[in-house]
Amino acid sequence: MIQSENGRKQHDLAAEDLAVLRGADISADGDTGDAFLVHCRSLNGLPNYLSMRGVDYSSLANQVGLGDADTTATDSYVALDAFAHLLELACEAADDECLALRWTSQDTEGNHGTLPLCLRYVPNLRVALETLSRFMSLHIDVSDVSVHFDGNATLSWRYSPLISRVNQITDRNACLFVSWLTTALPRSEYPVEVKLMRERPKSSALHRSLLSASLQFSCERNEIVFPGRSLDLPNPMADAHLFQALCDLNLRLMRERRRQDDIVLKVREEIMVVARVEQKPVSLEFVARRLGLSARGLQRRLAACGTSFNDLADGLRRDAAKRYLEETDLMVSEIAYRLGFSSIGNFTRAAKRWFGRSPRDYRSTMQSDREGSKGLS
Which PROSITE patterns does the record cross-reference, listed alphabetically (predicted)? Predict the structure, then answer.
């Protein structure tokens, strides 16, 4: 990440965006924002907290499409990328790079449902880690999650590369998970190490106070490491009957959750991951080989889901253009180059198809809306 002359953040997306999207055959709009979800309960308490911080929740929520989200809903989900964007905007508005961590540590309104309730009655930490890993998708969709027992015990998870802003959601979930897992543990048995995907903040004092004295930032995965000696300590609140009943309930709730076909998510992630690692144009054939499919077979499976490889690539290209125009001061010509357009005219035509206006008009409108929101807060 670099700073422009006027201080606005510029996300240097060139390596992945250019490699992913240069030369793609573009034909239709895609959609990545709703692929990964977080429970509506995650919003509970945020409006009041932001109000205390002098930030207008409604204006920020409207900006990211969450204005109508019910923060008290018990059976619905919102787009994780929108939630992550909301927290980042709140962080900027409050001028607090640790806003989500501070909010979570002070959250007295949070009702996070049956998952933490289940963890309250586990027999020990070992079972708690396995239970959180098993039912994490009731709280939040992650790309993958695992628990490893090797002397110590490590809970590990990462967000999909389709989620473009991870700093605040990383802080929030790391704080929640540590809180849920240590309910019945003495302080001496708290995590011995925590690794976070988020960038290093200017001050890590709050992270060290709430999470662990041993911290690493900008990691490939999030990890919470507990000492092996704490795994089998009996939980004084353990209740075998309540725990089993809540596990059965969580299993039923997981089966009722509806997700997009996995092949769509896998292709989107492959496009991003391959571009980031290989740093070269990504083709249908290349992605199909990585997924163990023929190009024709992958086309058929995507068609059955109502989409195509070109649709998905176009959606990623559109999302990258949106971030560049809203969050950087890069010239339109530079954005066009980074996204692989052969001319500004081609980029302008694509932007009109995506946003209903030219790149310059879209940027100007977004800046005006942002300034108007600040004036109301």
Answer: HTH_ARAC_FAMILY_2
- CB burial readout 356-371, b (16+ within 10 A) else e: eebbeebbeebeeebe
How far is the C-alpha of 63 from the C-alpha of 66, rounded, in Å?
A: 8
Sign of the dihedral through C-alpha 204, 209, 215, 219: negative
What would the pLDDT profile of 176-226 be if each residue is shown by its tens digit? Answer: 999 999 987 887 889 999 999 999 999 999 999 999 999 999 999 999 999
Kind and range of the H or E run holding 46:
helix 46-52
What is the distance, to the nearest Å, from the Cα of residue 13 to the centroid of all Cα atoms in its chain?
A: 17
DSSP-derived letter for residue 137 is G
| Cα 362 to Cα 173: distance, rounded to the nearest angstrom | 33
Contact criterion met (CB below 8 Å) for 352 and 358: yes
**Residue count of the chain:** 377
**DSSP character string of 292-306:** T--HHHHHHHHHHTT
Structure tokens at 365: 């409108």
C-alpha to C-alpha distance for 213 and 280, rounded to whole angstroms: 40
78-126 pLDDT, tens digit each: 999 999 999 999 999 999 999 999 999 998 656 678 999 999 999 999 9
pTM for this entry: 0.69
Give the distance from CA 16 to its chain's centroid. 18
Per-residue pLDDT reduced to its tens digit, 293-326: 888 989 988 988 889 998 888 888 888 889 889 8
Which contacts of 95-101 are long-range, i.e. CB under 8 A and separated by 24 or more positions?
96/53, 97/167, 97/201, 97/202, 98/171, 98/201, 98/203, 98/206, 98/207, 99/53, 99/168, 100/167, 100/168, 100/169, 100/171, 100/172, 100/175, 101/171, 101/172, 101/175, 101/206, 101/207, 101/210
Q: What's the CA gap between 304 and 359, in Å, rounded?
A: 33
In contact, 32 and 268? CB cutoff 8 Å: yes
Structure confidence at residue 4 as a pLDDT band (50, 70, 90): very low
